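INFO  loader      accepted 1 record
INFO  loader      residues=167
INFO  predictor   begin
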Amino acid sequence: MSEKNGTPATPAGSTGPRPEPLRFFGTTWVDHDHGYTTRRIAVSAGSLAATAISCLVLRFAYQGIEIAAIGTFVTVLVVVMFAVCSALAFRHTWDGFTKRTDPHRHASLRGLLTIGFVGSLLAYFFRSLIEAPGEKLHREEYETAREQHETRTTRRTGNPSKKRRRT
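INFO  predictor   done
INFO  writer      dumping tokens
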């Protein structure tokens, strides 16, 4: 790791694949080095703290609705909306850690994900207890890219002792 951004240095002339950095982790997820465990603990604590603060803000919003006395129906509707949006945001965020999401679908769900931000924060917290969020997906893609690169390189160079000599 010789570069400032945590990306492993590629030897001069090498064209092999490079790991994609993850938010808060850089490329420490590849070898679990350079403070990977400390970063996971910090990310877990930070996302849990953000979730708690978000719930406190939602509590203040709920109290504002109660003070406004706009009626039980609207109050229940708002609570159900936040609960459903949080559940959907949790699921969408959790799925995003294991497979690439469609950018058009993600754009169409942006409003729902914004309303359900508590669910996204909880998904980030729970995933950071297991691994760096998105590590599994990135590791699979990186390993596949490395295997494909090695296959292409081997196919091009081959075994020199088995090459036919031109006369």
